[in-house]
Amino acid sequence: MAIQQVRQFPNDPTTMIPLSAYVFVSAVLFMTGLIGVLVRRNFIIVLMSVEIMLNAANINLVAFSHYLDSLAGQLAALFIIAIAAGEAAVGLAIIIVVFRGKMATNVDEINILKW
Amino acid sequence: MMWLLFGYFATVSIVAGVLTVSLRNAVHCSLALLTLLLHMAGLFVLLNSEFLAMVQIIVYAGAILILYLFVLMLLSLKTEEQHLHKKYAFMVFGGMFIFVELLIFLLQSPFGGKKGEATPEVILQTDHSHAIGLTMFSDYLLLFEIVGIFLLGAVIGAIVLTKAPTKPENGHSTSTAIS
Question: Which residue of A has its CA nearest to B152?
C-alpha cells in the first residue's frame, strides 16, 4: 500500500480525531504517573512512573505538532526521549549504590541526606 | 477505522499505565510499562510521526526498559507485603485534584495556534525522517549538541557511581566511600 493511502491527512474531516482526544489521553496518563510517584514505595517503580509522565508529555507534544503542521514538537519529543535515557541510567546507578549500602529500595528508608 | 485504532491504542496505554502503577511485583510492572510504550508508539504512528514511533520502540522499549529489567534482576527484590505508601488515599486524592485542575484548564483552551510549514504534503515529498533530520541539524543544532554533552555526562556519572568501592587505605579516608 502506498504511503499516501496510509497517512492520515489532518484536513480530511471523516478520519479526523480531535486534538482534545489526544490531550485527554495524555492528561490521564500524566495523572497516573503522578499518582504512581506519590503512592509507590519501591524506588524503581517510582522511576517507571516518571517515565509514564514523560511519555504523556511526549504525546501532547507530538499531537500539537501534528495539528499545527510543525516539526518543533516532534523534535522536542526526541530530546525528551534522550533525556529520559540519561535519567534512567543515572537513577538506576544511584539505586544500585544505595542498595549496596542499605539493602533497601524503599523510598521511606532512604533518608541519608535527612537531618 | 482511525477511531478504532485510536481507541485501541489509547485504552490499552491507559490500562497499562494504571497496571504499572498498581501491580505488586516489580517485574510485572515493567512488563506493563513495556505494553504502554509499544502502544504509545502506535499513537505516534497515528499522528504521522513514524520516525518518532521507531525511536520510541528502539530507545524506550529496547534500551531503557531493558535497563530497568536488568537492574530488577540484579537486585533480586522480594515482593513486599505493603507495596503502596501508608497514606496512599491522600496521594490519590491529590493526583485527582491536579487532574481536575488540568481538565478545567484544557476545557477553557481554544487549542489555536499559528500553523507551521511542515504540512503532510510537504513532508511526503521527501520523507519523515528526512524532514526531521533537516530540522534537527539546522534549527535545533545547539540543542542537539547539548543533549549529546548531557548523555556523555550521564554515562560518566553512571560509571563512576556504580564502580565497586575500593578498600579505604589506612590512615586517611578515600573520596570513593559513597556507599
Answer: A86
A19-102 folds as Helix Hairpins (1.10.287)
Q: Write out pLDDT tens, residues A36-77.
A: 998 888 888 999 999 999 999 999 999 988 888 888 889 999
A85 contacts B91? CB cut-off 8 A? no
B122 within domain boundaries: yes
Residues B73 and B122 in one domain: no
Give how far Cα B132 sits from Cα of B74, B118, B123, B163, Å: 38, 10, 9, 38
Interface of A with B in 64-83 (CB under 8 A): 64-72, 74-75, 77-79, 81-83
Cell numbers linked to A14: 471523516
Out of B77, B110, B128, a domain closes at: B77
Q: Which domain holds residue B132?
A: 118-165
The number of domains in chain B is: 2
> Considering B77, B108, B141, which residue would you say is the last residue of a domain?
B77
pTM for the model stands at 0.84
Q: Cα separation of B84 and A42, whole Å?
A: 8
The vertex-B159 CA angle with B157 and B161, nearest 5°, equals 65
Q: How far apart are CA B172 and CA B105, in angstroms?
A: 58
Hey, where are the domains in chain A? 19-102
Distance (Å, whole) CA B69 – CA B54 = 21
Q: Is some CB atom of chain B closer than 8 A to the CB atom of A60?
A: no
